[in-house]
Specification:
Length: 137
């Protein structure tokens, strides 16, 4: 396990964010099968330590990291089979996630088809969220 994962988890615990227990490798594989999408290793490393926020809690900048079950549910209902979201801002104002067949992390505003490139990796996306970087809004 990488140090960055524990640093993020510790930060969120200090903020009082309610975190879910870790996902299992089988749960991640099942989600990947349903989504027809392979998560990058940094995502898997993170989710093997914490399966998103409990009860749609949010961190200090009002971002919610979704549990695998919500990632799958959103994918099945969002009407866009090219986008796999894993996070939202301010109760679905906009979403952060992956575009299938395109490297990187993207944000998409509710109801819009255009996706804006954000960063190259899950780890970088979490860092930007925790820093409240302007480009995550």
């Amino acid at each position: 396990m990488e140090n960055w994962v524990q640093e993020v988890i510790s930060k969120w615990k200090l903020e009082g964010v309610k975190l879910n227990p870790p996902a299992t490798a089988i749960e991640i594989e099942n989600a990947e099968s349903i989504l027809n999408f392979k998560f990058p290793q940094d995502f898997k490393d993170f989710y093997l330590n914490v399966n998103g926020f409990d009860g749609l809690d949010w961190q200090e900048h009002m971002f919610t990291l979704w549990p695998l079950e919500m990632i799958v549910r959103d994918f099945e209902t969002n009407g866009d089979d090219t986008f796999v979201g894993f996070c939202d801002f301010l109760l679905a104002s906009h979403f952060i996630g992956y575009c299938k067949n395109i490297e990187g992390i993207f944000k998409v505003y509710n109801g819009q088809a255009d996706k804006d490139f954000l960063v190259n990796s899950f780890r970088e996306a979490i860092e930007l969220i925790n820093l409240s970087a302007p480009n995550v809004y």
